[in-house]
């Protein structure tokens, strides 16, 4: 039988069967996790002669959506208490009357599971809705200035210029523009003086520093544009599994929009590892342990000295005066996964 020429495409399509379904976006990779122990030791020495009262505060990690603290074991020669302080931070406090001049040591052993934190609204296969999470009762605080992160007209102008130069319209686009600006223009460099305090003017002028300085600019510029942004601090772990000593702290940031919820950012790690620049806008890896959140902190019970710029190392007062004769050591050891 002969068919009109116009029917041939239909017949061929019918013979070929139904069209193949469109390729589905690749599912996001499973979140990585890391199970480990972390030991935190503070050794006080050479206390002033005649000291009548010594107060010691240590930050204590607590569980949240990105980490599970399975156990905290404290070894101390005097009674202590673990309290909940500002922004939900956990604080170990120890008070000693007539302490020995030779000092003493406090050791804290932590067992933790740290989970990779990725915002599902960002990435190759973004979710359609922001993740459900408990509201942050301190959201308005994360729009306010810090002592070393003022929100004066100059900072606001600089932040506006960054957003305008990127033609950023939404809050997410503005945060992305700030992140790109910080990673591109600030160098991870701990030489010289002034770095490590999270002083936004130092970082904007010197264009170098450590994680504290990177995130002072990121957080300050976000807040200057009306985007809540918060600061967290803890310790980094090397990517290689094993055990060893951790020499110093690491800090990072998050910002909030109604469309995305909280978005994790690590601008200093992105500057150190350019190949992971896209990853660290929207993710924190599992190689870290958070100890506290926020800056300009009042401890629990309240210290007599000034507010702490940030709280990661031991803080002590001898008769109400800051005491700095404290040696500290931090070590980690990877453990088999627990499934938490």
Account of the 3D structure:
The protein is of the alpha+beta class. It folds into 2 domains: 33-114 and 297-334, Immunoglobulin-like (Sandwich), CATH 2.60.40; 118-285, C8orf32 fold. Helices cover 19% and strands 32% of the residues. The strands form 5 sheets. The protein has a 5-stranded antiparallel beta sheet, with no helix packed on it. Strands 4-5-2-16-17 form a 5-stranded antiparallel beta sheet, with no helix packed on it. A 4-stranded antiparallel beta sheet has the order 13-12-10-15, covered by helices on one side. The longest helix is centred in the middle third of the chain and has 15 residues, at 171-185. The N and C termini lie far apart (69 Å). Mean pLDDT is 92; it is low at 1-16.
Task: Give keywords.
2 domains; 340 residues; 5-stranded antiparallel beta sheet; 32% strand; disordered N terminus; 18 strands; alpha+beta; C8orf32 fold; 19% helix; single chain; Immunoglobulin-like
Fold topology:
Elements: H1 8-16, E1 33-44, E2 53-60, E3 67-75, E4 80-84, E5 90-97, E6 104-115, E7 117-118, H2 153-165, H3 171-185, E8 187-188, H4 200-206, E9 208-209, H5 211-224, E10 229-236, E11 243-245, E12 250-257, E13 261-265, H6 267-272, E14 283-284, E15 288-293, E16 315-318, E17 321-323, E18 326-334
Parallel strand pairs: 8-9
Antiparallel strand pairs: 1-6, 1-18, 2-5, 2-16, 3-6, 4-5, 7-14, 10-12, 10-15, 11-18, 12-13, 16-17
Helix pairs in contact: 2-5, 3-5, 4-5
